[in-house]
Design brief:
7-stranded mixed β-sheet; Nucleoside Triphosphate Pyrophosphohydrolase; 27% helix; 10 strands; 2 domains; alpha+beta
């Protein structure tokens, strides 16, 4: 086919030959090679032209991968719940739960009415000071440095509970209050939440501890309290998180009394 287009008119022998089957795109390919084929035939006068093998066109179709739709996780569902212990401070249930994704499991859960933590800060000086308590904790088997804290009585307001605990354990009263943190103490098995209140504008008073509370209290500069955390002298989680929050906020503010102005609620 390339010889015919290179020489203009077909020879008698070429006109008698059977044409090759045509496929899409073959004529374009032959046209591109026509000039080269004509030069080749002229250089070999009298040679019998040969037929090039028919080109084969392959079309590859790429199938689109079916898009996977994300399954919406179903909400957790409580199948059954049984109280297995009830005490004066907390109660325990054994729950059968269908969790998101459809998994059915047993969960033993400690229920608690929630606790308040008081971050007592004296910001009247150049740097803030934090009030820490030291008392014996049977669960830890040791004396711990902690922030004042206590349980919220059923139906009691959080802020009222924080103010009550501060007076009972320390004798202090505060004119400015603000909730700064709220978190779960140990959500793997404990439903207790802890709300941390920043208390500033302090006034001293007489403590009213309960009969089983033997509490020693002391003010620490913020740098000293942070150092106690970093050197492993404070092991209480609520105290660690609250003191580090205060240290971070004080670095950002850098202004004496700013914490007091930010605390919005008054007692």
């Amino acid at each position: 086919m390339g010889n015919n287009r290179g020489q203009g008119k077909p020879s008698p022998r070429q006109s008698q030959s059977q044409p090759a089957p045509q496929i899409p795109g073959a004529n374009d390919r032959n046209a591109r090679s026509a000039g080269h084929a004509g030069q080749h035939n002229r250089s070999r006068a009298g040679a019998v032209p040969t037929r090039e093998p028919a080109a084969v066109l392959y079309i590859v179709c790429m199938a689109k991968a079916a898009s996977k739709k994300k399954k919406k996780s179903s909400p957790a569902r409580l199948v059954s719940s049984k109280v297995v212990y009830r005490g004066p401070v907390f109660w325990i249930t054994t729950d059968q739960v269908q969790e998101p994704g459809g998994v059915k499991v047993r969960r033993d859960l400690i229920h608690h009415s929630g606790s308040v933590v008081v971050l007592v800060v004296d910001d009247s000086g150049k740097t803030p000071r934090v009030l820490l308590e030291r008392q014996y904790r049977h669960a830890a088997g040791a004396y711990l440095w902690e922030l004042p804290a206590g349980r919220i009585d059923p139906g009691e307001d959080e802020l009222k509970a924080a103010q009550r605990e501060l007076i009972e354990e320390t004798g202090y009263r505060a004119t400015h209050w603000r909730r700064i943190l709220k978190f779960y103490a140990s959500p793997g098995f404990l439903a207790e939440t802890m709300s941390v209140y920043l208390a500033t504008g302090l006034q001293t008073g007489v403590a009213e501890p309960e009969d089983d509370e033997m509490i020693r209290k002391r003010m620490f500069p913020i740098a000293a309290a942070v150092n106690m955390i970093l050197t492993g002298k404070i092991h209480d989680a609520k105290t660690i998180s609250s003191v580090l929050w205060l240290d971070r906020m004080w670095e950002k503010s850098g202004t004496q009394g700013l914490l007091r102005r930010r605390a919005g609620k008054r007692s």
